[in-house]
Amino acid sequence: MQHMDLQVVRRALEWSQAGQPIWLCTVLATYGSAPRAPGSLLVVNAQGQWLGSLSGGCVEEAFLEQVAQGEFARPVTIVRYGEGDDAQARVSLPCGGVLDVLVEHMQPGCEVQAHLQQMVSALRGQQRLIREVDLSSGARSLFADREQGLRIEREIDRVRVRVGAAQRLLLAGYSSVSQVCAEFAVGLGFEVILCDPREEVIADVVLYNVEIRRQLPSQFIADGGCHCDTAVVALTHDPRIDDLAMIEAVRTDAFYIGVMGSLQTSQKRLERLSRVGGLTDAELARIHAPIGLNIGSRTPGEIALAVLADIVRVRSGVSRDQL
């Protein structure tokens, strides 16, 4: 399944290359309940064609009407939907929420197209970028993103948006914990891939919106299955699955690497990975073992909750000391 943001930016690039002006919209913030998360994209051309989503339908109609009326002629505008004096802005969201949307009016040209092409590269997982938009002039800049953190950072005079591939969860092997982790992660918007070569284990596994690959997770990782927006978790208690996955994962840019086990089991595993796998202290330090937040988890559901909470913590740039 192709990441929707990637589809949106590719379409924006196509329209720009065809000489069409475009309006690229980014959800900056949501207040209360809202169908789409900050960072979600939508693009519109002068003919009223559009791709993407801001709210699941209700805001889009009002926005398209505003574009047709010429209300977004400036290079950059921030508009709030769900409250305010303007009739268009007071459009009701189905969940009763409020949206702040950044609207960039982009004229066709080499500079805009180069900017969009860089975004495509980032959304394909080839790099991670921060887009900075000057709210006075509309000037856009791109910087390498080397840290985890909030997707949107907003100041008085500028907005920064993290651009990267769809957040991916790679499950190294199937277990009852993997089952619940997959279900949680899909609900959180992750692209979820489960790798397990054991046909007797996964023959009857049913996981909706999850890609199941019948191969060693270590092989999938070695073949380029991880990018810098990937979390790799091993939850089987089978060293043939878990250890090999860890050995390959630490050689990638995955932002989270973790393996399930008690404190004693984890210590033995790290010693084994050092002695047999040849991992360095720096590589071992990247592995979360025991995995997840310490919330007293016992059941598969509780363990999965602890794992996903820790992944979200790291993705958001929050240290354990801040919890």
UniProtKB/TrEMBL annotation:
<feature type="domain" description="XdhC- CoxI">
    <location>
        <begin position="15"/>
        <end position="69"/>
    </location>
</feature>
<dbReference type="InterPro" id="IPR003777">
    <property type="entry name" value="XdhC_CoxI"/>
</dbReference>
<dbReference type="InterPro" id="IPR027051">
    <property type="entry name" value="XdhC_Rossmann_dom"/>
</dbReference>
<feature type="domain" description="XdhC Rossmann">
    <location>
        <begin position="169"/>
        <end position="311"/>
    </location>
</feature>
<dbReference type="InterPro" id="IPR052698">
    <property type="entry name" value="MoCofactor_Util/Proc"/>
</dbReference>
<dbReference type="Pfam" id="PF02625">
    <property type="entry name" value="XdhC_CoxI"/>
</dbReference>
<dbReference type="Pfam" id="PF13478">
    <property type="entry name" value="XdhC_C"/>
</dbReference>
<protein>
    <submittedName>
        <fullName>XshC-Cox1 family protein</fullName>
    </submittedName>
</protein>
